[in-house]
Amino acid sequence: MKTQRSDLFLFVFIFILFIFAFFVFWVVTDMVLLGASLAVVLIPLHRRISGLTRPGVSAAFLTFCVFGILFIVTIGSYFIISSNLNVILEMFTAIDSWLNNPATNPLDFGIPFTKASMSGLLSRGTALFVDYQKTLLDNLALIAFKVFVLFFSLFSLLLWGDELKRKLTRHVPSPFGEYVKTLSKVTSDTLYAIYIVQIAIAALTFFISLPVFYLLGYGNIVFLSFLAAFCELIPVLGASVAFLLVGMYALAIGDMWGVFILFFFGYVIVSCLPEIYIRPVLVGKRVKIHPVIMFIGIISGILTLGIAGFVLGPLIIVLLITAYRLSVQEKKDRDEQVVPSLK
Question: Residue 140 pLDDT more than 80?
Answer without folding.
Answer: no
